[in-house]
Amino acid sequence: MDDFETVRVGQAAYGKGVYARRRFKKGAAVGEVTGEVIDTEGYDSNYCIDLGGPRRLEPGAPFRFINHSCTPNCRFTWYEPLSKSDPLPNTVWVEALRVIEPGEELSIDYCWPADAAIRCGCRSPRCRGWIVDPAELPVLAGR
Ligand SMILES: [Zn+2]
């Protein structure tokens, strides 16, 4: 479908997904998450990323389409600020948590708060049953 430098966006079990176009070593930068930086107090959405203070990054393609897994092969990582006068990070990267082979679907752990949690269908043997921050899982007990 949509080819990017290191990944492509294709069909996944639920909607779209992001797939590796080459092999990545553990710790490798898969790509930068680009999108719209929103600087409005109280802004929130399912996919926005916290940049510190009120600032959020609303990711665009391809990494907007990265799916959740309870045992993900990637995570978002924040670059350290370059100087004290610019204390907020401006860039977010997707980092490989283990070796990823070409064609493998990329995933991250969404770690949503309990009030935003939905049922998870990631099929991991260690699936938590919900797309939720593990620390908030007890809140969902009995649902
Ligand atoms: Zn799961």
Average pLDDT for all residues: 90
What profile does the largest beta sheet have?
3 strands, antiparallel
Radius of gyration: 16 Å
Q: State which percent range the strand residues make up.
A: 25-35%
Terminal CA distance: 38 Å
By CATH, the architecture is named Beta Complex
Record field, number of beta strands: 13
**Helical percent range?**
under 10%
**SS class:** mainly beta
**Count of spatially separate domains:** 1
CATH 4th-level superfamily: SET domain
Strand order of the biggest β-sheet = 1-2-3
Question: Your description of this structure?
Answer:
The protein has 143 residues and is mostly beta strands. It has a single domain (2-112), classed as SET domain (Beta-clip-like), CATH 2.170.270.10. Helix content is 0%, strand content 31%. The protein contains no helices and 13 strands. The protein has strands at residues 2-3, 7-11, 16-20, 29-33, 35-38, 49-50, 56-59, 67-68, 74-78, 92-96, 107-108, 118-119, 130-131. The model has no long low-confidence stretch (mean pLDDT 90). The structure holds zinc ion. Residues 70, 120, 122, 124, 127-128 line the site of zinc ion. Zinc ion binds at residues 70, 120, 122, 124, 127-128.
